[in-house]
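Pilot study result, target chain (220 residues):
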Amino acid sequence: MCNRYETSEEREIERTWHVGRDQPSRWWDEVVFPRGKGVFIRRAVHEAGYRRELVAGQWGLIPWFATSAKLPYSTNNARSEELAAKATFKQPWARGQRCIIPARSFDEPCWESGKNVWWRFRRADGQPWGLAGLWSTWIDKSSGEVHESYTMLTMNADHHPLMRRMHKPDPRLPPDQQDKRSVIPLPPQAWDAWLAGSVQSAQSLFAVPPESSFAVELVP
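Predicted structure:
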């Protein structure tokens, strides 16, 4: 699970995904925490063709059935195995409301020393991450205010040599059944398929890159 990440800069987003040039400068949080304000890239919703658009919203998806934008539970992460069944996420998943979350880095806790030590993960090639997510638009019926929001997808990483080292282990479970979680970084060649492809093709993109793709440092 991820609860803190560093979002990409405007020029980096425009250069990498070719969106955001006409947006106001820095209207999101530099370091994003749950319920903070970040940005995501989605397929433009009001056009018949295909175009990417950059949207600012809350990191924590507001489902259609919510009665308030302030949720009493956490929705900043979504387990990829549960997307089709969980009430909060199943409609956005079925409707293809997928997004890419631009991130310069993301942080995860390592408990190998017996204490929580934060590790920071960047791409080894210096480029930004494009993390898999879902988005939602929720309208407050009392005020008409529009709220954009998103969630970051995760998948099991028990067998990944690097990501399985993250998070506090459950002493009741064997090492290969811990359900350690990882975000899902999308390779650049898969971005358009993720945003505009079918549910089946999108599901085939769930993977954690090899250990060599990561540059790791301790959080100061």
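One observation from the pilot: The chain has a mean pLDDT of 94. A full batch analysis is planned for the follow-on phase.
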